[in-house]
Amino acid sequence: MGLFSPYKNSEPTPDPVTPPASPGAKPVGKERATPTRREAEQARRQRLNPQLTKKEARLKARTQREVETRKRTASFDNVPARALMRDHVDARFNVAEWSMPTLMVLLALSLIVSPMLPMLVEPTLYATWAFMALVVVDIFVLWRQFKKLAAERIPNEPLKGMLYYGFNRALSLRRFRLPLPRVKRGDSF
């Protein structure tokens, strides 16, 4: 009896009993070659850290960025003052919302039409300045209304940065605003 040696056993090991094969049966096998060590390691690495195509890697990175951005902005957007500003901007018609399309049309008029019709240069310029003044007045009214609303609903909440936040939200088109609008236009909130 080998105490420390596995090869010196006093008892012989019994032979495993194999079932008798039936005369018409095929031998049971694994039907593929044993993978080499390199192939096994490569398969293990692929399971742990899959190799993605460029398209799959870009898609995965994009979704991770979107999830991280949502998490990061959720903490900022859950402030009561921001929620109130969002609802206030979304509930009213904003002239600033149409500033980018309007200014692009006026720019196209001044660049394309003005060489052919020089008499349209001055009216286009005046229209541009008038529209910008209208946007400034609209933002001023938005801010005044919001300050009154905030004084009623959240009196002790600081309003630092809310003018800038409301201006940025009012500038973007309604369908592109994030977080998405909760209030319909004209509804009270």
In a nutshell, what does this entry contain?
The chain has 189 residues and is an all-alpha fold. It is built from six helices and no strands.
Describe the structure.
- The protein is mainly α.
- The chain folds into two domains: 39-78; 80-176.
- 56% of the residues lie in helices and 0% in strands.
- It has helices spanning 37-48, 54-77, 80-91, 99-113, 121-153, 162-171.
- Helix 3 packs across helix 5, helix 3 packs parallel to helix 6 and helix 4 (99-113) runs antiparallel to helix 5.
- The mean pLDDT is 87.
What topology does this entry show?
Blueprint: H1 37-48, H2 54-77, H3 80-91, H4 99-113, H5 121-153, H6 162-171
Distance linking N and C termini? 89 Å
Mean pLDDT: 87
Overall strand count: 0
- Helix-strand string: HHHHHH
Total domain modules: 2
Shape: elongated
Structural class: mainly alpha
Give a quick account of the main beta sheet: strands, pairing sense, barrel closure: none
Q: Helicity range of the residues?
A: 55-70%
Number of helices: 6
List unreliable stretches of 5+ residues.
none
Rg (C-alpha, Å): 36 Å
Strand residues, percent: under 5%
Task: Throw out a few tags for this protein.
single chain, 189 residues, mainly alpha
